[in-house]
Amino acid sequence: MTTRPKSASPAVPALKLMRLAAEAAQSKKAEQIVGLDLSSLEGVADYFLICSGASEPQVKAIYEAIEEKLRLAGAKPWHVEAGSRRWVLMDYVDVVVHVFHEKTREYYLLERLWGDAGSVDLGLE
């Protein structure tokens, strides 16, 4: 069994990491970019970033842009599930990024599932 690391990037605080991921998603025209603060809940991470793309190629472009921007900031994902271009999960330990195809996002409704989480101002314009 692999032990979950304490942080994907000790040099970059989790909130900043999530905002960088949001900026990268926005640069690829991601839609409905939402940040959730899970730190007060018994969850798997402190923050979730959820966004969606209108097509599988766009989901891939968003995922790749986020991965590159966070890598340049010194963060490496602990785990990535990118087998499907309908939902890509990127686990940065304190921050988990979900990039959905818009139809898949409508089906799973993660925002409702984690309804007790507070929203985070991502600083996007």
Short descriptors:
globular, single chain, 34% helix, Beta Polymerase, domain 2, alpha+beta, 125 residues
Please tell me how large the radius of gyration is.
Answer: 13 Å
The share of residues in helices is 25-40%
Run of helices and strands: HEEHEEEHHE
CATH level-two architecture = 2-Layer Sandwich
Q: What would the CATH topology be?
A: Beta Polymerase, domain 2
Question: Briefly, what CATH class?
Answer: Alpha Beta
Range of strand content:
25-35%
How many H/I helices?
A: 4
Average of per-residue pLDDT values: 89
Structure overview:
Helices cover 34% and strands 26% of the residues. By secondary structure, the protein is α+β, with helices and mostly antiparallel strands. It has a single domain, classed as Beta Polymerase, domain 2, CATH 3.30.460. The protein has a six-stranded mixed sheet with strand order 3-4-5-2-1-6. A hairpin with a 3-residue loop joins strand 4 and strand 5. Helix 1 (14-27) packs across helix 2 (56-72). The chain is globular, with a radius of gyration of 13 Å. The relative contact order is 0.25. The mean pLDDT is 89.
Explain briefly what this protein structure is.
This protein has a single domain (14-113), classed as Beta Polymerase, domain 2 (2-Layer Sandwich). The protein is 34% helix and 26% strand. The chain contains four helices and six strands.
